[in-house]
Design goal:
By secondary structure, the protein is of the alpha+beta class. It has 2 domains: 280 residues, no CATH class; 84 residues, Arc Repressor Mutant, subunit A (Orthogonal Bundle), CATH 1.10.10. Helices cover 37% and strands 21% of the residues. The chain has 13 helices and 18 strands. It has a 5-stranded mixed β-sheet with strand order 14-15-16-17-18, covered by helices on one side. Strands 1-12-13-11 form a 4-stranded mixed β-sheet. The radius of gyration is 22 Å and the shape is globular. About 2% of the residues have low confidence.
Length: 397
């Protein structure tokens, strides 16, 4: 008979797995890398109000994290790479061979665009001789009818800048990688200059598409910690329907890679990595490190990938209101959930000012949250850390 746990135990397990409760298990730049390896990928979003999504994801669980650490891991150490996975993401460079099917598909699609091959060859020659370029500095003029194969959704074309289109195609093909970014502008260079030959030339560890899906689902379970067998945005981009998802979960369980568990009050079974069974047992016997701390959670954080799951386990509804018209917003433009202990305690909108002061524009506590000394002390500490993360010297309520 399948084991049943309480909702609180499910919450505590997820947070302990993700490093969001208890003593920090991820510290500094190496901790940031370790967390991304555990999660498989973190989502990239260019909007920067109080840190970009990927940076916010790391600051909430990596002690002493600074924005420069992610830039170094991406563009100096080359231990991480920008590429598609769950939308546009950041993931460990050692996973490059697994995504060869994406690059193969991109190459096949590029053959369908007349004249694109010649432009690709011209761009590669120029970049080889001159180094990193962006769409404004690559001397290829005009427009072409083209559609990025990274987001291929049908046989239709759009007119776009030839330079931009060629760079994006070569990037999706895997010929180019992002060398660095200036704001939202991407600069590209040849992948072979920066990625080790043993990674570039490695065979895909997944022998077929089915094996690749198994690998990706396992990675998403690791990212969330405890994932249910339901339609889930945590599996976005893998393109599986209900019946196939059930077969994948069953296959991973039969291989001993995941363990099933039921949660009180929820009909669907949940799964976690077999390698996390020791952590699960510690949560169940009360020996896990569950010391409360406060964190501000990124809008696209892996913790929030499946909002119905969050609603079911936490009774917390979060909507990212960045694209909601101002007059229809319930909270703020870039409001972050506040996690305290094993509960979502509220929401906060905080914006760094040019004068070096982080200003709290809005603070909304959840019903039933008491303004205790312990809560206020945790909030003060979280805001001071968040101010430093945003290059500020102090905060103002």
């Amino acid at each position: 008979m399948m084991q049943t746990i309480t909702k609180q135990q499910a919450r505590q397990f997820i947070l302990a797995k993700q490093g969001l409760i208890g003593s920090y298990k991820f510290k500094g730049k190496e901790g940031a890398l370790a967390y991304i390896r555990q999660a498989g990928c973190i989502q990239f979003d260019p909007v920067d109000v109080c840190g970009k999504n990927a940076e916010l994801t790391l600051q909430s669980r990596v002690k002493g994290f600074r924005k420069t650490m992610l830039q170094e891991l991406l563009y100096q150490d080359r231990k991480l790479i920008d590429y598609v996975d769950k939308e546009l993401s950041i993931w460990p460079v050692e996973d490059w061979p697994y995504f060869s099917s994406f690059r193969d598909r991109s190459l096949q699609m590029s053959d369908t665009f007349e004249g694109l091959q010649e432009l690709k060859e011209e761009a590669v020659r120029y970049i080889d001789e001159n180094g990193p370029v962006c769409s404004d500095t690559l001397p290829i003029e005009g427009e072409i009818f083209w559609h990025s194969s990274m987001h291929w959704s049908g046989h239709w074309h759009k007119k776009s800048s030839a330079a931009r289109s060629v760079l994006e195609q070569l990037y999706t093909d895997g010929t180019l990688i992002i060398h660095h970014k200036k704001g939202s502008r991407k600069y590209y260079d040849l992948a072979e200059k920066y990625l080790p030959a043993d990674i570039l030339n490695a065979e895909n560890p997944c022998g077929n598409d089915e094996a690749f899906k198994l690998w990706r689902v396992l990675r998403r379970i690791s990212a969330v910690g405890l994932l249910w067998d339901k339609n889930s945005t945590a599996l976005l981009g893998i393109h599986i329907k209900a019946e196939e998802r059930k077969k994948i979960f069953a296959c991973l369980a039969a291989e001993g890679k995941i363990c099933p568990v039921m949660v009180e009050g929820v009909k669907a079974p949940f799964y976690y990595l077999s390698s996390d069974d020791e952590l699960m047992q510690k949560v169940l016997d009360g020996s896990a490190d569950l010391k409360p701390r406060m964190s501000f959670i990124a809008p696209l954080d892996p913790l929030l990938w499946d909002k119905p799951l969050i609603s079911a386990l936490w009774d917390f509804q979060y909507s990212w209101e960045i694209y909601t018209p101002a007059e229809k917003r319930k909270y703020g433009y870039y409001t972050l959930p506040i996690l305290f202990g094993d509960r979502f305690a509220g929401r906060i909108e905080a914006v760094p000012g040019k004068d070096g002061i982080l200003r709290v524009k809005g603070l909304w506590w959840e019903p039933g949250i008491r303004q205790t000394k312990k809560l206020n002390t945790a909030l003060d500490r979280a805001l001071r850390n968040f101010a430093v993360f945003n290059g500020c010297t102090d905060y103002e309520m």
